[in-house]
Each structure stands twice: as C-alpha cells, then as structure tokens.
Amino acid sequence: MNADVIIIGGGIAGCSAAFHLAESGVSTLLLDRGEISGEASGVNMGGLGASGWGNSPGLQEYLTMGSLNIFKKLQLELGYDIEFRQSGSFTAIHTENQYSYAQSMVIESQKNAFNLQLLSPYEAKSLEPELNLDLFGYIYSPTRGQADPYKTTQAFSKAALHAGLKVQTTTEVIGITSSDSVWHVETNKGNNAAQSVVIAAGAWSKNIGEMVGVNIPVKPVVGQMWSTEPLPPRVFGTIASIESSFHWMEKPYVDDKSPPELTHFGDERVTRHLYGRQRRSGEIIFGGDRRNSGFSKSIDAAGIEVNKTHASEVLPLLSGLPVSSTWSGLMPFSDDGKPVIGRIPKHDNLFVVSGLGSSGFGRGPAAGMLIADLVCRGESHPVLLESDPARFAS
Ligand SMILES: Cc1cc2nc3c(=O)[nH]c(=O)nc-3n(C[C@H](O)[C@H](O)[C@H](O)COP(=O)(O)OP(=O)(O)OC[C@H]3O[C@@H](n4cnc5c(N)ncnc54)[C@H](O)[C@@H]3O)c2cc1C
Fold first, then answer.
1. What is the pLDDT of residues 31-42, one digit of tens each?
2. How far apart (Å, rounded) are the C-alpha atoms in residues 283 and 254?
3. Burial level of 71, CB count in 10 A (0-12/13-18/19+)?
4. Is 153 exposed, middle or buried (0-12, 13-18, 19+ CB in 10 A)?
C-alpha cells in the first residue's frame, strides 16, 4: 500500500485533513490534479466568518470558531505568516427594512451569546474610517477575521509535509475501485492503494463520487472578484452588505433545482452580495456574485460593475479607483446548502469533506480536522450529524 489514507484534493479542506492526519502519525498521501491551493482555496476573498460559540454550539460554530483557533495556531504557534488578523467585520445596512431585519437578527444573536453589535454610521466610521456615513448603520462582528488564502492553504500542506505527508500534484484521479478492503486510486500517473480514501475535491466532488457510484450532490457555483492597484492602508476590517441575506431570508431559493443563496437565476440577477477587504500588499479586493454556470469560470464584466457600485456605496473611496484585475473560482455548493462531511454510506473507509460553499476558507480548517478525527477514531463527532452524507442516500 502507498499510504493508510489517500486524500483527493489539495484545497483548504484536503490540506487541513492531511495536516491533522499526518500530525496524528497516520501515513497519508495527498493527490491533486493541479497544484496545492490552485482552485477556490487559493483565490477567495480571505474572510473568516466567526461570530462566537453561542449558548449551544452546533456544526456552524465548530466549523467557524474551531477554524479560527486553527488559523491562530498556524500563525502564532507554528510560525507560518498567513497574514491572519482578527480584524472584525462591518456589514452595511442600506434601507429601513434592512435595518429592522438587522436589529432583530442582532438582538436574537445576542440572546444566544453571539458577538454581534448594531452600530450607527458614526460609531462604525470611528472604527473603520472609510465607511459611508450616509447609510442606515452597520453590524459589527469583532470576532471575524481575515487571512491570505493562498499562503494559508500552502501553510497547511507545508506543516503536513513536515509531519510526514506525501504529496503528488499534477496527478488527476480518473478511477477508484476497491478489493479486499483496499482502495485502488487510479491516476494519470499510475495507481495508488490505501485503506481509506477522503474525497476533498471541492466543486468536483460529485465527479469523484460517480467513480464509485455514489451521489455527492455538490454543484460548482462561480464566484468572481476584482481589485484596485495597491494603496496605503485604508481599510482594516472585512466589509460586507446585508442586502443579500435580507433577500435570501425573504426568498430562500431561486428555483427548486439550484443550491440556496445564489445571486442569479440563470442570467438574471436576483440580489447583490458583497464581501471585501484590503490585502497586506495594498490592493482593495471585492466580490460577491454567485452564479450557477456549470464549470465555466468566465468573468461576467457587468457583474463586476454592479459589485463595484455596491462596494462604492459602502466605501465611497472606491468610486474613483479603476478596476486593476479580475479573477474567479468555483465554490462547492451542496443541494441543501449545508456542508457534506462524514462517512459515505455503504462503502467501508470512504469519506468526504465538501459542500463548504461560499465560506469554505473560514470553515475548511475545522472541517479537515473533523474528518481527520473520524478517519482516525472511526467515530463521528456528534456535530457531524448535521453534515452526514447519509442524508442524500436513497
Ligand atoms: C471568489 C471567491 C471568494 C470566496 N470568498 C470566501 C471568503 O471570503 N471566505 C470563505 O470562507 N470562503 C470563501 N470562498 C469559498 C472558499 O474558497 C471555498 O469554499 C473553499 O476554498 C473550498 O475548499 P475545498 O478544499 O473544498 O475546494 P478547492 O479549493 O476547490 O480544492 C479542491 C481541489 O480538488 C482538486 N481536484 C478536483 N478534481 C480532482 C481530481 N479528479 N483529481 C485530483 N484532484 C482533483 C482540485 O484541483 C482542487 O485543488 C470564496 C470562493 C470564491 C470562488
């Protein structure tokens, strides 16, 4: 056998799983058809959406707050400079209706011991000087943070290599079979065998599942971003808008075949979504659109314009700055919008960690840790009940 465990996919989920397995002394081989951090995990906005453990932590809190602790460990204990900062986050409120929604959401979350505050524009601008004073207000989340996505995913793989991980990049998995309790993973560069396999192939997880006749209902959703030229430090926290969550609260699905919480129905926009920050290297970066366009990563120029207008409503300094570059990536959205993390039914020692959607960078580290824990102990952490792939089994 080549290893105890083969992981398919070198994004944040696969690299974190590899790190936690290798750190526990499990012999692990990671395969990626491209490079480590070559897909969504390397090109995302870098926002970490943790708002506290709350009174009764469930899967979301384990993934967000658990990941936050792992980001801290990578940078503060293991010494990797991943540009992590617990910078806080500001979510802009544009209308009176959005304000009422934000108010009840913040009151409810405070009752449940989450760390959200409703700030007037004046209070918010005292903390984040470029915010627009003429909006209705901002939700402030001091626990949220940011990190460089490419450096972070690379840091997981380096830490895992240090702990004994073997990695093969430019190695595409093209088939999987099992015999006598051994998994045989066929690639363009030859075959590998292991006792266990973890599918961590992001937006391509469904394709890998099909190789063993398993339905992993994860669809690719394209997200795109743009950036300014580098500027001196002007934006310190991460920036968002409540417009999309207000819309999705009122209309949860665009249709019954698409994953929830998209910005488009076909080519038609249904809402505007917004996230952004300033990188350490100075570029202010923003994005938000979520389109169901298959595996196409082509940029929708009109969408970039809409997003820039939206961002400029929150940070007026952006209106005078040209777009200097654009890029895109594919997010793994499950059919019900929830993560897919756990043991695949009816197949011994076959696992999946996927469906992390639009917040897989901030949740991937803990998702990888939880799947590594399941592979090592053979027993699921109770919070994984919510992400159990068995919910899709027929
Ligand atoms: C524009 C954009 C902005 C985003 N912003 C944020 C944000 O601010 N915060 C946040 O938390 N999340 C954000 N996300 C979401 C986040 O990036 C993803 O949820 C996360 O990176 C998914 O990680 P993953 O490891 O599951 O998948 P990926 O990073 O896609 O990794 C999967 C890997 O599997 C490999 N693979 C696929 N098929 C095969 C095969 N047959 N053989 C071998 N290897 C294979 C691929 O090459 C790839 O490297 C954003 C995403 C995008 C696109």
1. 999 999 999 999
2. 33
3. buried
4. buried
Residue carrying the six token digits 């169901």: 292
Mean pLDDT score, 235-248: 97
Task: Name the residue of 204, 227, 263 to mutate for ligand 1: max ligand atoms within 8 A of Cβ.
Answer: 204
Distance between alpha carbon 10 and the CA centroid of its chain, in Å?
A: 14
38 lines ligand 1 (CB under 6 A): yes
Distance CA 14, CA 11 (A): 5
Beta bridge partners, 7, equal 30, 198
Cα atoms found within 13 Å of the Cα of residue 216, Cβ hemisphere only: 35
Tell me what the mean pLDDT of segment 141-155 comes to.
Answer: 98
Mean pLDDT of the chain: 96
DSSP-assigned letter for residue 359:
G
366 CA distance to ligand 1 centroid (A)?
A: 15
Reported confidence tier of residue 394, pLDDT bands at 50, 70, 90: low
CA 358 – ligand 1 centroid, Å: 9
pLDDT surpassing 80 at residue 308: yes
Q: What is the reported pLDDT for 253?
A: 75
Q: Name the 3-class secondary structure at 229.
A: coil
**Domains of the chain and any CATH numbers:** 3-81+149-217+336-392 (3.50.50.60), 89-142+219-334 (3.30.9.10)
3-state class of 345 per DSSP?
Answer: coil
C-alpha span between 208 and 218 (Å, rounded): 11
